[in-house]
């Protein structure tokens, strides 16, 4: 009998050594009392709290990020009552007030009558994994933003414009609100590039983009690069007189910019031509036709000597 006791003790020592040498943190909770009957000493190295300080499930819940606390506790209690093994990812608070991402893997132990007797499990530090996941999400978001941004000027590009145009067109049609569109073109930009070079030409486009962006004053006003030296401003819930005022403001901003253009045939300074259109979309109106009409208005502004505004 003595040999058997010694063997059991040795086996227990082996299991204990194994448990306490792994990076995963083992623990056991008695279901009836909701008290920790064991937690691995590794917990202190990871979170700073001593094993003795883990008395009841209250310590476990209170040492959790406030945003995670409610749902994790509710989820784990519900799963445990149902006798279902489960796992949960949450942020555990360290003794000095920082947070570590934990994955808690829980096994439900039942007695001979099938009643829940205890919960045993392992806590894993998954902070590094979570940080990597977040970096990937941030990178994905950045790529999405880049795909909707013009690489040179940093303002929304044609792809984003098409998306917003479609949305605002449907909104204007549904609520029977006016929608105004400005299409702008830098006058004699090819000659500007030929005269000053492409590097200065690119810098010029950046300056124009940043300056004209400031003319879009409301949150839903939308300014984008249409391509080349063309820009577009979309003005929801804006009637024609208000849109004309914004077009005039764009021209004034260009004058204030004072970009020299020796090869221009209309001014010593860089100027823009603007086509403008306003519509309350009816059931038979098509977005593509409206954009075409405003584009034609820009063409007429160019035909009329440039540096002017023409309405569709």
TrEMBL record:
It catalyses: 2 GTP = 3',3'-c-di-GMP + 2 diphosphate. The lineage of its organism: Bacteria, Pseudomonadati, Pseudomonadota, Gammaproteobacteria, Thiotrichales. Pfam families: GGDEF, PAS_3. One of its GO terms (molecular function) is diguanylate cyclase activity. Residues 86-138 form the PAC domain. Residues 177-312 form the GGDEF domain. One of its GO terms (cellular component) is plasma membrane. One of its GO terms (biological process) is cell adhesion involved in single-species biofilm formation. This is diguanylate cyclase. NCBIfam families: GGDEF, sensory_box. Its EC number is 2.7.7.65. Residues 11-70 form the PAS domain. Its cofactor is Mg(2+). PROSITE patterns: GGDEF (PS50887), PAC (PS50113), PAS (PS50112). Coiled coil: none annotated. CDD domains: GGDEF, PAS.
């Amino acid at each position: 009998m003595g040999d058997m006791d010694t063997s059991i003790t040795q086996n227990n020592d082996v299991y204990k050594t194994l448990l306490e040498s792994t990076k995963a943190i083992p623990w056991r909770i008695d279901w009836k009392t909701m008290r920790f009957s064991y937690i691995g000493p590794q917990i202190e190295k990871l979170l700073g709290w001593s094993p003795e300080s883990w008395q009841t499930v209250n310590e476990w819940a209170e040492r959790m990020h406030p945003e995670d606390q409610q749902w994790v506790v509710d989820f784990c209690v519900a799963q445990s009552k149902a006798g279902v093994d489960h796992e949960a990812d949450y942020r555990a608070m360290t003794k000095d007030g920082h947070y570590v991402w934990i994955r808690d893997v829980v096994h439900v132990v039942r007695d001979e009558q099938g009643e829940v007797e205890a919960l045993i499990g392992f806590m894993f530090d998954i902070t590094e994994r979570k940080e990597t996941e977040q970096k990937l999400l941030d990178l994905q978001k950045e790529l999405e933003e880049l795909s909707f941004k013009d690489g040179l000027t940093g303002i929304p590009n044609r792809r984003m414009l098409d998306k917003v145009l479609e949305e605002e067109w449907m909104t204007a049609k549904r609520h029977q609100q006016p929608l105004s569109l400005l299409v702008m073109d830098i006058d004699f930009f090819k000659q500007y590039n030929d005269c000053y070079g492409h590097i200065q030409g690119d810098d010029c486009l950046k300056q124009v983009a940043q300056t004209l962006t400031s003319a879009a004053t409301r949150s839903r006003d939308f300014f984008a690069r249409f391509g080349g030296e063309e820009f577009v401003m979309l003005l929801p819930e804006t009637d024609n007189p208000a849109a004309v005022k914004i077009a005039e403001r764009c021209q004034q901003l260009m004058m204030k910019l004072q970009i020299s253009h020796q090869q221009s045939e209309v001014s010593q300074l860089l100027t823009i031509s603007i086509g403008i259109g306003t519509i309350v979309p009816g059931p038979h109106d098509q977005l593509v036709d409206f954009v075409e009409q405003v584009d034609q208005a820009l063409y007429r502004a160019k035909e009329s000597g440039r540096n002017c505004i023409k309405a569709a």
